[in-house]
Design brief:
- Helix content is 29%, strand content 25%.
- The chain contains 11 helices and 20 strands.
- Strands 1, 13, 14, 15, 16, 17, 18, 19 and 20 form a 9-stranded mixed beta sheet that branches. An 8-stranded parallel β-barrel has the order 2-3-4-5-6-9-11-12, surrounded by 7 helices. Strands 7-10 form a two-stranded antiparallel ribbon.
- Helix 7 links the parallel strand 5 and strand 6.
- Helix 3 crosses helix 10, helix 6 crosses helix 7 and helix 7 runs parallel beside helix 8.
- This is Type III PLP-dependent enzyme.
- One of its GO terms (molecular function) is diaminopimelate decarboxylase activity.
- Pfam families: Orn_Arg_deC_N (PF02784).
- Keywords: Decarboxylase, Lyase, Pyridoxal phosphate.
């Protein structure tokens, strides 16, 4: 089993050909980026994202659509890189993400909107934009959406997000097949179809959406789960009395952040799914149907690097502590504070030193809380103040998923490596940014 340091070395090679302490994705040295723009910063590798999107499309087959879950990384330029491939649609979970998707270039007919608590304003925006489907999550939401569509005298596509009776096993986080806030109970499917079809002038039943888990690594249970979704789709088509236009299988392909996790076998899953699709696609109830996988983390996670600078190195009762200028305030997930039951370290390297394992250290951020810790046993090679530390797998759920206002440290920069250039997307914040949008007492 490969260790985290082995995994970090592999990721560095994949990201930018790391050699003798020099990481240069696209030919641009990370140390030069830090010197020009300051630290901390998120660095995204556009070509890696494009390569992953193409690999997924090839594995799943040309008749399967891939939809980018914008929540994973809503940075506009990152979203544009994906949109310009013309190989994907977009799945959004808020009005803000809908703005990003449209600005990035996704067409309305390739956008779906999911989320357990859509406001009337968000439903109105979806209707005005004319997106392909609002994936409704309750019978009440169907009624609300119908009222909005009628008020605007428009027709809106509807996907029924179903919480299936059967769980997907072998996953990291379950959002279906259990009791929770996501989706319609499978027992309510007939009523949901009836309510949707009751508004033919203002609602069109597109199909179903089933997203039950994320961080899935086991291929066979996922294929069986897709088989169950196909059967649920046929049941829905029977209830509707006509073929479906969409079956959204969710996604959740795993990213191996931690030790003892291997890469998701994309090729084996793709082969299994294509075989499954060949069996069901000839059913007249799925004639002309769009088959969709929505992926976010899997498309962008390994194409992102969080870079932070060592501020201090000190010994405390026999333990070496290394503190950096960014931590949980900038990268909540990498410090294990985004709902993880067990806090484990991401693959991390000292980018200012030659490849080597180094002695284990505790790596902490700048926040005044013991929670601000990347890890307590990280083999960091010879850390000294001023060194650059790289946290891999940082392309997803990084900047936007963090509590950036905590302790009022300036925000990190966001930078994209694209076509051999380092393009500044968002500058490093300034201390006075904390006052933006606030009004003082007169």
């Amino acid at each position: 089993m490969r260790t985290q340091i082995d995994k970090a070395h592999d990721l560095a090679e994949r990201f930018g050909g790391w050699k003798d302490g020099v990481l240069a994705p696209g030919g641009v040295k990370v140390s030069d980026i830090a010197a020009e723009h300051g630290t901390p910063f998120y660095l995204y590798h556009g070509e890696m994202i494009v390569d992953r999107v193409r690999r997924v499309r090839e594995a799943l087959g040309g008749d399967v659509e891939v939809t980018y879950s914008v929540k994973a990384n809503p940075n506009l330029a990152v979203t544009q890189v994906i949109a310009r491939e013309h190989l994907t649609g977009a799945e959004v979970a808020s009005s803000g993400e809908l703005v990003v998707a449209r600005t990035a270039g996704f067409e309305p007919e390739d956008i779906v909107f999911a989320g357990p608590a859509k406001t009337d304003e968000e439903l109105e925006m979806a209707v005005r934009e004319g997106i392909f489907a609002v994936n409704v999550e309750s019978v009440n939401e169907i009624n609300r959406l119908a009222a909005v569509a009628e008020r605007h005298d428009k027709n809106i596509g509807v996907g029924l997000r179903i919480n299936p009776a059967q769980q997907l096993m072998g996953s990291g986080m379950r959002m279906g097949g259990t009791v929770g806030q996501f989706g319609l109970d499978e027992a309510d499917l007939e009523e949901a179809v009836r309510r949707t079809l009751a508004h033919p002038e203002h609602m069109t039943l597109r199909g179903i959406h089933v997203y039950t888990a994320t961080q899935v690594f086991e291929v066979d249970p996922l294929i069986e789960h897709c088989r169950n979704i196909f059967e649920l789709a046929l049941k829905t088509a029977d209830l509707a009395g006509r073929p479906l236009e969409m079956v959204d299988f969710g996604g959740g392909f795993g990213v191996p952040y931690f030790e003892k996790l291997e890469e998701f076998d994309l090729e084996r899953f793709g082969a299994g799914f294509q075989e499954l699709l060949a069996h069901y696609r000839t059913d007249p109830r799925l004639e002309g149907c769009r088959f969709v996988f929505e992926l976010g983390r899997y498309l962008v996670a390994d194409a992102g690097l969080y870079v932070t600078k060592v501020i201090d190195v000190k010994d405390m009762k026999g333990k070496t502590f290394v503190t950096t200028d960014g931590g949980m305030n900038h990268h909540l997930t990498a410090t294990g504070n985004m709902g993880q039951v067990f806090r484990k370290a991401y693959p991390i390297l000292n980018l200012s030193r030659s490849p080597g394992e180094g002695e284990p250290v505790a790596l902490a951020g700048p926040c005044c809380t013991p929670l601000d810790m990347f890890g307590t046993n990280i083999p960091l090679a010879d850390p000294e103040p001023g060194d650059l530390v790289g946290v891999f797998y940082s392309g997803a759920y990084g900047f936007s998923a963090s509590n950036l206002g905590f302790l009022s440290h300036p925000n990190p920069a966001e930078i994209l490596i694209w076509q051999g250039e380092a393009r500044l997307l968002r500058p490093v914040g300034k201390p006075e940014d904390v006052l933006k949008g606030q009004e003082a007492l007169v």
